[in-house]
Every structure is written in C-alpha cells, then in structure tokens.
Request: fold
Amino acid sequence: MTHENTIATVARVNFAKAAPKAFKALIGFDAAAREGLDPALVELVQIRASQLNGCAYCLHIHTSDARKAGESDERLLMIAVWREAAGFFTDREQAALDLAEAVTMVSRGGVPDAVYARAAGLFGEDELARLLALIFTINTWNRIAVSTAKVPGTDERAPRP
Reply:
C-alpha cells in the first residue's frame, strides 16, 4: 500500500470541534512551553519540526508568524540547511534546532547524548524543559494538521494579539 501526497478526498474530523477538551489542553501546554522562550527561537524550532514532518499548514503559519515578528527571509530560507549555514544562527539557535531534529526524528535512534548535552549547556534546566515541551507541542500540532488534512495558506487559529 502506498501513500500519495494529494489533497484529501475524504472529509476529515475537525479536531478542535470534535475534541475540544484535548484541543484546549494542547493550547495550554503550548502556551506554557513558550513562556520565557525567545520568540524568534520558538518560530525557528516550529519551522524546522514542521519541515521535517512535512506539515505545510504549520510551516506556512510559522514562517508567516516569524516574518511578522521581524525575522528575515534570508534566515528563514536557511533553516532547512542550518548546519551548512551555521553562520546565520547563534549557538543557542543551533543547539535548539539540533534538539528539535533529534526529538522530531526520535525513531531514528533517540536523542543522542551529545545533542542533549549541547542544549543543556546553553539553556538552563527550566528553559531546556520548556524548549523540549515546545518541540513536543509542535510535533503534536503537525500530526493533527497532517492527519486532518489542514489546508496550507489558511490559518484557523483564533486571532493573536
């Protein structure tokens, strides 16, 4: 059996309406994860995880949010190749991107000690825990959007201040 990346022809569940308590809990978890993290770092991590998960819906949202927050197109274009373009990103951003990749691709052998140690050396324990929580939430959002066939270019979130 093969998967084809085509527009969904079967109606998909509206997760927010069908599971409002779970949806609301995830929003709360996401907000708690972001608390105290640099907003630019938050968007970089969310963009990279969305790239790895093939979530066009979330990728569109987070690149748009990053631009609105003042992120340059140049850096946004370099996220997919951040290792080769390391000069575009701070040491903390690189460590966060590396950790985001390891956690997102956890089935490929877990989170290597070196990746974790680098992040732990650059982020305090509380901040590292929130960074991990952020990575968990974006991976969950990606899976919701992909599973329910969210359409890229739309943004169904409540308006943000």
Helices lie at 15-18, 20-34, 39-53, 56-68, 73-78, 91-104, 113-122, 125-147. The two ends are 45 Å apart (CA to CA).
